[in-house]
Design brief:
By secondary structure, the protein is α/β, with parallel strands linked by helices. It has 5 helices and 8 strands; from the N terminus they run βββαβαβαβαβαβ. α1 runs parallel beside α2. The C terminus is likely disordered.
């Protein structure tokens, strides 16, 4: 039996939760309470996009992600500010079920094989903003998988 998952996205910037990447709609100053509300209302997973701008704010975002994963049973997928393999490790050590790579960032696509080999294919997810069979095929070839790499689509009209 197949079903659709409810997977809300929290855009995290300066410990605040936004509903969009442009940061035009502030949900709350407390991202942990937003994640708790999503979880309580039936979310199957929660995606947290870290929109930090420097190492200090990135570490602060990792701390918020750690608080969220400790407070909830709902799996969390974290990404957004992945510049190096170390960032993937930080998200996973903070309790994220998987680290999210962005196909629009060339550096993320380059490191995909390395992080799949190092952390396991089940710990890496890919987000892409337009349906492109070549991107999906590349992701499957790089990680040598069929079902294990989660590919999350974000369509914008």
């Amino acid at each position: 039996m197949s079903y659709k998952k409810l997977v809300p996205i929290i855009y995290l910037k300066d410990t605040k939760a936004y509903s969009d990447e442009a940061l035009t709609n502030l949900i709350s100053d407390d991202a942990v309470s937003v994640a708790d509300s999503f979880s309580a209302n039936g979310a199957d997973e929660i995606i947290i996009m870290d929109l930090s701008y420097d190492d200090a704010s990135h570490d602060e975002a990792i701390g918020i992600i750690r608080q969220i994963t400790k407070a909830l049973d709902t799996p969390v997928i974290a990404g957004g500010n992945v510049k190096r393999v170390e960032d993937v490790k930080k998200y996973l050590y903070a309790g994220a079920k998987a680290a999210l790579l962005d196909e629009s960032r060339e550096s993320n696509m380059i490191m995909m094989k390395e992080v799949c080999d190092r952390f396991g294919k089940d710990k890496i997810a890919l987000i892409y903003r337009a349906y492109d069979k070549d991107v999906i095929q590349l992701a499957k070839m790089v990680c040598l998988i069929k079902k294990q790499l989660r590919i999350l689509m974000e369509f914008r009209l």
